[in-house]
Amino acid sequence: MTADRVLLLIIDGVSDRPCPDLRNLTPLQAAKTPVLDRIAAEGICGIMDTIGPGIRPGSDTSHLSLLGYPPESCYTGRGPLEAVGTGILMEPGMIGFRCNYATLDNAGRVIDRRAGRIHDTADLTRAVMDGVDLSPFGIEVLFRSGTGHRAALAFRGRGLGACVSSNDPKKDGVRCPPFRPLRDSPADRKTADALDSFVRQADAILAGHPLNRNRSKRGLAPANTILIRGAGEMGDFPPFSERYGLSGSVIAAATLINGIGTSVGLRRVPVAGATGSIDTNLSGKVDAALTELETQDFVLLNIKGADEAGHDGKAVEKRDFIELIDAAIEPFLSVQGLLLVVCADHSTPCSIRDHSADPVPLVIRGDGVRIDAVRSYDEIACAQGGLNRIPGSALMPIICDLINRTTKYGA
Ligand code: ZN
Ligand code: ZN
Q: What is the reported pTM?
């Protein structure tokens, strides 16, 4: 018997280093995880360099790598993937950007880079989208709200470059720098000039918008400007379904992960209450994955909160969230014909509050898998497993082989 469906559960940033707050255990070692440990006991384990040994992955580059899209050739910056994640239809060659709504004082200085963490930006975004005109540049503008104070912008037009600086001063109390081309090229110059025009027009629209006047009256920071960064040209992604002959879905709270999934042709499944934090709707995400597995060959489920706890340096919080995840994923154990793959996209050690290149623990459980001696899912135990240490680029080939979707190499 072989499995015929795949759940790839990526517990974002879950792996770690020894934490003094946890008697020098990692949060995965310290957490009580009967379900993950059972998966390890019934599966084959290993550790994985999601991009390569010693390379500190971003969540974007590591997800691309795990899906079999080498970031060295496929990754063109975060902007275009964020734009896809907000629902903008990005075609190869379009330029995408990440945006923040922010607050300027009367002198034009940035006083809040997140506009009081505004979250209801739909009206503002619509007003900007309808009001800004870049037709003198031959550019069609697409602008969408993301989660919270975030948004994404895309330009469609000829002769545009993506090597441009940001207008984000990165700190409060100073004015926004103008956009600059980072190379001596007419294409980059055109994009920089168009971005300056976009922000000038958007600022005028936002300044007089009723929602902002109302916020000011209530003592809240108005969202009266837009900070733009992460410029990149949309790449050309061969569809996942053609690469592997598998239909698939993506379930994630983060716009970026949804953008990556959608870019490779996975179906995006929104889940109410999915926040990307430790207060996320775990059972809602698991239920959505179970439903998708009824019709799809492959489901990518990303759970983000452990990464956030790592960035905040909160080892105990990270351990406790791992226990919540463990309880929530139990229903996957009884899905017939399922190849259950659990890993992280990178380590986010609490001690460094950022991603590290430490390899992540990996387990694969399903019909036909060679079961090794590993009995618990953590960084140290999995290193003893039958998969040994593999690069992230090997994951999809191994998965496809285990579900009998590979063809023989040679006679
Ligand atoms: Zn990540
Ligand atoms: Zn992170």
A: 0.92
